[in-house]
Amino acid sequence: MDVSSLDPDRFRISPGDAPGLADRPTRADDLLGPDDEDAKATAEALNEELSERIGDLQERLWATKAAKVLVVLQGMDTSGKDSTTRRVFGAGSPLGIAVKGFGRPTEEELAHGYLWRVHRHTPADGEIVIFNRSHYEDVLVVRVDDLVPEGRWRRRYGHIVDFERMLADEGTIILKFMLHISHDEQRERLQERIDNPKKHWKFEHHDLRVRESWGEYMAAYEDAITRTSTEHAPWYVVPSDQKWFRDLVVGRVVVDALERLEMPWPDPEPGIEGLVVE
Amino acid sequence: MDVSSLDPDRFRISPGDAPGLADRPTRADDLLGPDDEDAKATAEALNEELSERIGDLQERLWATKAAKVLVVLQGMDTSGKDSTTRRVFGAGSPLGIAVKGFGRPTEEELAHGYLWRVHRHTPADGEIVIFNRSHYEDVLVVRVDDLVPEGRWRRRYGHIVDFERMLADEGTIILKFMLHISHDEQRERLQERIDNPKKHWKFEHHDLRVRESWGEYMAAYEDAITRTSTEHAPWYVVPSDQKWFRDLVVGRVVVDALERLEMPWPDPEPGIEGLVVE
């Protein structure tokens, strides 16, 4: 595979397929051959083009209201959810792009069903909303930490498929990305947060406890992706040990989806031609 | 049938059954025999008891957080949605009961999927929320007035069943009431709004246009109820030409559902016994 002709669909999980996370590459090298500087430089140039393209497409989306767009970013700590948002969507206008992070639920949120807090932040016509973590935490951390009984979280796979189908039927394009990093890469990134004073603020002791449950999280992701990757809301498992490759895959998926909308600029108001402002 | 031994389940629509609205009684007389004063007086005494009982059960629900309760009221203009709320739920505490009316959607609401605006108002643990109109308008007025293409509103029956199942799985008791009045009864009530200056504020010319589509609305209700009455979120079609009978049916359904929760008062904090406040 050549980085400039990358087919982003090869990272999409077909409905019913298991992603096989344990054997799935987290690095471009496994796909491209040796990790040469050329691939990285080529990808970085492509990423700049993609970023501009997304800026333009987002403006057209906002102008035409051609669809609602929901981007879900999931991944282990340090997998790059924040950085993907900045780097891939950074050229978009804040008017039509919103990022919503879902942390530990509040008491009020817990008192409602788990889809309550996410539904209210889903996009309107013309908007792109990026979920940094999402309703998937309710079948991930909730499962690993045993926060509700198994029968209850298992039923959620079905709810989520139904919920996302309803959003899609009502005009939402849903793109879900699992930023897939290796256990080793996470060790390095966490160590960097500990060693580099400028990154201290990102580190929490809690992250180490979560890391101890790595295997259980992978099992939870494996099931969640298998059960909820659908035609109307596909999962993409993105090799994310290298930012340049991760950005390339996410950027390409987003651009392809937006370009499929075919959004010519709306016609101007009638009578605008020759109008002189006095 | 005797009014004091009324079985509210006879008004419930079993999953898959059609309500047969055209032939379904809107008056108690059709069920009780002649509409004698005794039945009315008996029902009114029962309704006072039911109202107090609901006040007590609602307080227990709030204290125990035993469930979330969603009551959906639907019906043609003048069918008594407001009056049912006041008369059946009037004894509850505003702390744990909320009424949410859904009128013509705002531009912001229209820009989202139709379940967006209702989901955010669904109840939390311990709350009773009464929807005065609801997401069902999106398969009723939307169908009759042809506001979205048929393929789109038809898919909504499935969305609604799925949405309500998710709410139920997450701890919501859902009770849906169609307040069934006759075409004649509506004529009298609308005329009263026109003739009685104190009721002028309730009248809108638009109501007469909706009345012209009575048959289409009945067809839309017939399909909606057939497709969405489920074990987890049943529809009750309530004969509503007489308020005393309507209140009796709704009150009994609500009391039965809340009593099934078995909500003993929570234990006091340990060490409260013998405690002297100084």
Structure description:
The structure is a homodimer of 278-residue chains. Chain A is α/β, with parallel strands linked by helices. Chain A has a single domain (3-259), classed as 3-Layer(aba) Sandwich (Rossmann fold), CATH 3.40.50. Chain A has helices at residues 29-32, 37-64, 81-89, 107-111, 116-119, 141-144, 150-169, 183-195, 205-212, 214-228, 243-259; strands at 68-75, 97-101, 128-132, 172-180, 235-239. A five-stranded parallel β-sheet of chain A has the order 2-3-1-4-5, sandwiched between helices. The longest helix of chain A is centred in the first third of the chain and has 28 residues, at 37-64. The A-B interface holds A 65, 68, 108, 111-116, 119-120, 122-126, 152, 155-156, 159, 162-163, 165-167, 169-172 and B 65, 68, 108, 111-116, 119-120, 122-126, 152, 155-156, 159, 162-163, 165-167, 169-172. Chains A, B: GO terms for molecular function: polyphosphate kinase activity. Chains A, B: Keywords: Kinase, Transferase.
List the helices and strands and how they pair.
2 copies of one chain form a homodimer.
Chain A: H1 29-32, H2 37-64, E1 68-75, H3 81-89, E2 97-101, H4 107-111, H5 116-119, E3 128-132, H6 141-144, H7 150-169, E4 172-180, H8 183-195, H9 205-212, H10 214-228, E5 235-239, H11 243-259
Parallel strand pairs in A: 1-3, 1-4, 2-3, 4-5
Helix pairs in contact in A: 2-11, 3-11
